[in-house]
């Protein structure tokens, strides 16, 4: 028995290395996993980069988007299922920035970077993204963060795949970056909803539990 390919899409400030534990967990269960890199300059460019990864898959994959990665996967075509993890689920006339609003929890942690973009300080990131991780793991994850060019969060997807493809939303009830109340509202756009008492990045703190959520929707194994 084989399973659909999986494409894991990280969020702002993050990079593919943050996905290595959930990637290993899913590979141990028999999945082929792809983890493209974002930070291409805009939502449109990020979506095209992930679409290329989707097109390289064996058949239509399940795509998993974390945080801003939700906006990226929303614009994809030729996919089997969407899984949103504490992620944005925009319509074609909406952006992450618009959905989050000017008082989004993450905003108070964002600092200007010398490059002209923004970044999250390491010590802040440990409390913002990874507060339920052991210190060593949170410290490692914080050191993997990269500066973020401006503008990605204001991009709007060209299509809303969740209107035609089945989807799952994983609400992270202890999230300090994307308000759980906003997650609950966006989750109503999805076919099914799961919830974890978890921080913004549960695939680092508890990759097995997140893998369970993803794998529970692969009953159409081929």
Question: How do you describe this structure in short?
Answer:
The protein is α/β, with parallel strands linked by helices and 222 residues long. The chain has helices at residues 20-28, 43-55, 69-74, 96-100, 122-128, 135-144, 180-187, 202-205, 207-215; strands at residues 6-9, 33-34, 62-66, 81-85, 110-112, 118-120, 167-172, 192-196. 32% of the residues lie in helices and 15% in strands.
What does the model show?
It is a single chain. The chain has 222 residues and is of the alpha/beta class. It is built from nine helices and eight strands. The protein has helices at residues 20-28, 43-55, 69-74, 96-100, 122-128, 135-144, 180-187, 202-205, 207-215; strands at 6-9, 33-34, 62-66, 81-85, 110-112, 118-120, 167-172, 192-196. The protein has a six-stranded parallel sheet. Strands 5-6 form a two-stranded antiparallel ribbon. The chain is globular.
Describe how the helices and strands are arranged:
Layout: E1 6-9, H1 20-28, E2 33-34, H2 43-55, E3 62-66, H3 69-74, E4 81-85, H4 96-100, E5 110-112, E6 118-120, H5 122-128, H6 135-144, E7 167-172, H7 180-187, E8 192-196, H8 202-205, H9 207-215
Parallel strand pairs: 1-2, 1-3, 3-4, 4-7, 7-8
Antiparallel strand pairs: 5-6
Helix pairs in contact: 1-9, 5-6
| Strand and helix order | EHEHEHEHEEHHEHEHH
Summarize the amount of helix as a percent range.
25-40%
Which blocks of ≥5 consecutive residues have pLDDT under 50?
Answer: none
**C-alpha Rg (nearest Å):** 16 Å
Q: If strands are numbered along the chain, what order do they take across the biggest sheet?
A: 2-1-3-4-7-8
What's the total number of strands? 8
Overall geometry: globular
Query: Mean of the pLDDT scores?
Result: 93
Structural class category = alpha/beta
Q: Note the gap between the termini.
A: 6 Å
Report the β-strand fraction as a percent range: 5-15%
Counted by DSSP, the helix tally is 9
Give a short account of the largest sheet: 6 strands, parallel
